[in-house]
Every structure is written in structure tokens, then in C-alpha cells.
């Protein structure tokens, strides 16, 4: 967290009573501290239900002088989703802020010289962190942005589930017929079709190539055919896969279940992704963001879902940078300073979306590609170079949002890029795509969206 942000946060809680809450599954623990930082109540618990919330409110109103009831700030640790019901219930009555669990964890050793967790200790640490300005404000989103945010949270969860299902499926195939992975990617429709009909190298050796070549040619839109099947059969002759004849039925059942699970998550991702895009189109930001070549419909939707009403929530692009965790932190003492590192102490979903956006826009947008190439020529570390381009993108992106206009190619930047590539003998195939007329197509646009990308 930047020092400017801490000072800004401190001004919000200056002279106010702070209530720190350590949330739990069935009960929360709370403590009240004065504006000077001294506890004015013992830690107390309350259940996560209507009676418990009423008990909490009565407790703080009784402990805090009546004339100070307007000067109450509640800090709650943002653990999992345990805090959400509390915030929604009290959001119109009190100022509520969120404290990262990492902040609480790192503060435990300072309090009692060990990192052991107790609810009483953590509730005080949350209150202290709030008073010190180490929190994020709970933005009150309009319904459309809240809906987008909820959809994107679930979209990320099922995306992670799909990756897990894919890894399990690939792990099983690597044991049974590892050479198949040299011919096809495990998550393609072609590979899934073949695994639904064949499993072991022996099964593939008995495959009717002429018949299956027609099927996979249609499934893969002519990307695979007889040549691929002949290659698979050749590998099957001398496969090192384990022999599973004695347990063939059980392994077949497991494989079929894994395929169905993977396909289920793929369908869910497609459905939720489509809903995200359709809802994002009703915001004033969607067309502006998608006008930037390389930002697909789904990435634009996820960006809006995490940022909410951008104009209302942020005054400068550096705030978005800090919110995503890509602002730099440095250890410094006197004239000595350590290496710079990204913060990471922020919104992981937003950070992931921004990283993917830069991966694509660094191929097409001259302003970003120039920054990327300058760094690459000095030190070719892909991830670091991509992350270093994020401020450049955010600056450009925020200017477009504030000015309410779409991206337009700047001729001077384009010419500068061409000159740099020519000078350093860099061959680029993306010149024809620098123009924004070639709009990036989303994989969620047409009914056959998944078939088009997974062949």
C-alpha cells in the first residue's frame, strides 16, 4: 500500500471510534478501541444471525458515548466470504472498511512475538490496522456493477475448477497413454472425442482410421485428420503406458467421469462468460475498452466487473495500479534501498485480468509495445517485462475513460515503433493489426464458441 493511500485512509478515520471484527463461520469476534487507540471494551462475540447482529449493534452503541455515534468506523477482515453478510446488513448504517487477512497475519508477531492465531488477538489487530489506515474502502456499487462483480467471482472459481479438471485428466492420460499428448492437446474437442471412444494404446491400435478421420476432420474444422490418427497409431505400437487390462472397467469409468467434469465446467464458463459480456455492454465503459486492440470482450467485462464504476471509484490510474497489486514496494533505510518488487497485496482477480490484457495488447498497441521492446532489449524476462507495461496501459486506459472516447492509433507512436523494430532488426507479423479496424473477437460470441477455439 502506498504512503499516500495510507495518509488518505487515516484522514477518513481521524478522531473516530474503531470497531475491529474477526469474522468466523458461525460467530464473529469484535473489539472497540477509542480514537487514541485504547480498547474501551473487552473482546466480545456475537452469532452470525439476526439476534447476533442486534447484539453487536446494541453493544457498540452502549459502549460508545451517544454524541460519538456518528463517528464510528467498523473494520472487518476480508476472510473468504465470511464478511459479506455483515457488510450488507450494516452498510447503510455505518462506515465499513475491509482489512486484508495478510495484514492481520503480519501484525501478529508484533503484538506478542509469535504468529499464533486467536480470535481476541485478531479482532484487536483488525481494529489497529484500521486505525493506522491499512484498509480498503468498501465501494458501494450500483446494482449492475455488483451483479457483474458477483458473476466474475463465480467465473474465476469455475475457471480454476476447469484447470484442475484438465490437470487431472492429463495426469491420467499421461499414465495410460502418454504419447497421445504429443499429438493432441488434452483440452481440445478432438482429443476428448477420441478419449470417449478409445483409452489404451491397444484401443487406438484397433481404431478404424478411415472412419474416425472423417469424424475428427469435422470436429477440428480440418485441423486434424488421417495424418494425426496415423501418428497416434504409430506411437501406440511402442507406448510406455502402464498395462491396465485387469482394471480396465474402473479406469474407463474414471476417465469418462473426468471428461464429463471437464466438459461441464467448459459449458459453465461459456454460459457465465456470455452473461458477463451481455451485462457489460450496458455500461458506458465496454465499447471504450474493447476499442483497444487485444482486449477481448471477456477481458473487458472482467475488468469492468472488478473496477465497478471507474469514474466514480478512481481519481487517478495509480489508484487502479495499487488496487491490482502492481504498484512497486521497496525496502529503504537511510541511503540504502533494496530491490523493487510488486506489492501483490491487493485484488488478485484484477491483477490476473490486467496481466492477460498486457500479454495481448503488447503485440498490437504501439504505446505498450514500445515499452515492452525497450525492456526486452535490456533484459529478456517475459513476465517482468509484461508487468512493467501495466502502468503504461492503465495511464492510456484511464485517459480514454475520463475523456469518454475510443482508442485511436497515434501515427507518431506507430512510426516510432516501426523505426525501433527496423533499427534492432525485430521481425513483427502484427503490423497489419495495429489498426483498430481488426476487432478482437471474443470466444463467447457465437453459439459454437467453444467448438471454434477447442479443436
Account of the protein in words:
With 455 residues, the protein is of the alpha/beta class. The protein has three domains: 3-138, Nucleotidyltransferase, domain 5 (2-Layer Sandwich); 147-277, Helix Hairpins (Orthogonal Bundle), CATH 1.10.287.4070; 283-330 and 337-453, no CATH class. 57% of the residues lie in helices and 9% in strands. It has 21 helices and eight strands. The protein has helices at residues 3-13, 50-63, 84-90, 101-112, 119-131, 143-176, 189-197, 201-205, 209-219, 226-237, 248-280, 286-290, 297-307, 310-313, 317-324, 348-364, 366-378, 382-388, 390-403, 411-423, 449-453, and strands at 17-22, 27-33, 44-47, 72-77, 95-99, 136-137, 328-333, 336-342. The strands form two sheets. A six-stranded mixed β-sheet has the order 3-2-1-4-5-6. Strand 1 and strand 2 form a beta hairpin. Helix 11 packs across helix 13 and helix 15 (317-324) packs across helix 19 (390-403). It starts with a helix and ends with a helix. 30% of the residues are buried. Residues 1-7 and 436-455 have low confidence and may be disordered.
Structure summary:
This protein is an alpha/beta fold. Helices cover 57% and strands 9% of the residues. The chain is globular and about 85 Å long.
Shape annotation: globular
What is the percent of helical residues? 55-70%
Report the span from N to C terminus.
Answer: 44 Å
Largest sheet: 6 strands, mixed
Residue stretches low in confidence (pLDDT < 50, at least 5 long) are: 1-7, 436-455
Order of strands, main sheet, comes to 3-2-1-4-5-6
Radius of gyration: 27 Å
What share of residues are in beta strands? 5-15%
Provide a count of the helices. 21
N-to-C series of helices and strands: HEEEHEHEHHEHHHHHHHHHHEEHHHHHH
Mean pLDDT across all amino acids: 86
Beta-strand segment tally: 8
Amino acid at each position: 500500500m502506498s504512503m499516500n493511500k495510507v495518509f488518505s485512509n487515516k484522514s477518513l478515520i481521524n478522531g473516530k471510534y474503531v470497531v475491529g471484527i474477526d469474522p468466523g463461520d458461525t460467530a464473529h469476534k469484535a473489539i472497540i478501541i477509542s480514537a487514541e487507540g485504547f480498547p474501551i471494551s473487552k473482546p466480545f462475540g456475537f452469532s452470525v444471525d439476526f439476534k447476533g447482529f442486534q447484539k453487536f449493534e446494541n453493544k457498540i452503541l452502549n459502549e460508545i458515548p451517544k454524541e460519538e455515534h456518528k463517528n464510528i468506523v467498523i473494520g472487518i477482515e476480508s476472510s473468504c466470504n465470511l464478511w459479506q453478510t455483515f457488510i450488507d446488513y450494516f452498510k447503510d448504517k455505518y462506515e465499513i472498511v475491509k482489512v486484508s487477512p495478510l495484514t492481520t497475519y503480519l501484525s501478529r508477531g508484533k503484538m506478542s512475538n509469535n504468529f499464533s492465531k486467536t480470535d481476541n488477538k485478531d479482532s484487536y489487530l483488525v481494529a489497529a490496522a484500521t486505525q493506522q489506515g491499512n484498509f480498503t474502502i468498501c465501494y458501494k456499487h450500483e446494482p449492475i456493477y455488483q451483479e457483474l462483480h458477483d458473476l466474475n467471482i463465480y467465473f474465476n472459481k469455475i475457471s480454476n475448477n476447469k484447470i484442475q479438471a484438465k490437470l487431472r485428466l492429463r495426469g491420467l492420460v499421461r499414465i495410460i497413454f502418454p504419447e497421445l499428448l504429443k499429438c493432441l492437446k488434452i483440452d481440445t474437442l478432438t482429443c476428448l472425442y477420441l478419449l470417449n471412444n478409445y483409452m489404451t494404446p491397444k484401443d487406438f491400435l484397433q481404431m478404424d482410421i478411415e472412419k474416425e478421420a472423417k469424424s475428427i476432420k469435422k470436429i477440428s474444422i480440418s485441423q486434424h485428420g488421417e495424418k494425426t490418427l496415423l501418428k497416434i497409431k504409430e506411437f501406440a505400437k511402442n507406448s510406455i503406458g502402464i498395462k491396465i487390462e485387469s482394471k480396465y472397467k474402473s479406469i474407463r469409468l474414471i476417465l469418462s467421469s473426468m471428461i464429463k467434469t471437464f466438459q461441464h465446467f467448459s459449458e459453465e464458463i461459456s454460459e457465465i462468460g456470455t452473461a458477463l459480456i451481455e451485462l457489460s455492454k450496458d455500461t458506458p465503459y465496454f465499447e471504450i475498452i474493447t476499442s483497444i486492440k487485444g482486449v477481448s470482450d471477456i477481458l473487458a467485462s472482467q475488468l469492468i466487473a472488478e473496477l465497478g464504476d471507474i469514474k466514480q471509484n478512481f481519481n487517478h490510474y495509480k489508484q487502479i495500479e495499487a488496487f491490482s497489486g502492481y504498484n512497486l514496494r521497496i525496502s529503504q533505510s537511510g541511503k540504502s534501498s533494496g530491490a523493487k518488487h510488486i506489492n501483490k497485496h491487493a485484488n488478485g482477480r484484477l491483477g490476473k485480468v490486467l496481466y492477460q490484457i498486457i500479454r495481448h495488447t503488447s503485440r498490437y498497441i504501439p504505446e505498450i509495445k514500445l515499452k515492452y521492446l525497450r525492456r526486452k532489449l535490456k533484459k529478456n524476462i517475459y513476465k517482468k517485462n509484461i508487468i512493467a507495461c501495466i502502468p503504461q496501459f492503465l495511464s492510456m486506459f484511464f485517459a480514454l475513460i475520463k475523456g469518454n472516447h475510443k482508442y485511436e492509433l497515434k501515427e507518431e507512436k506507430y512510426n516510432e515503433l516501426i523505426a525501433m523494430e527496423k533499427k534492432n532488426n525485430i521481425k513483427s507479423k502484427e503490423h497489419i493489426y495495429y489498426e483498430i479496424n481488426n476487432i478482437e473477437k471474443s470466444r463467447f460470441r457465437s453459439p459454437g464458441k467453444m467448438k471454434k477455439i477447442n479443436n
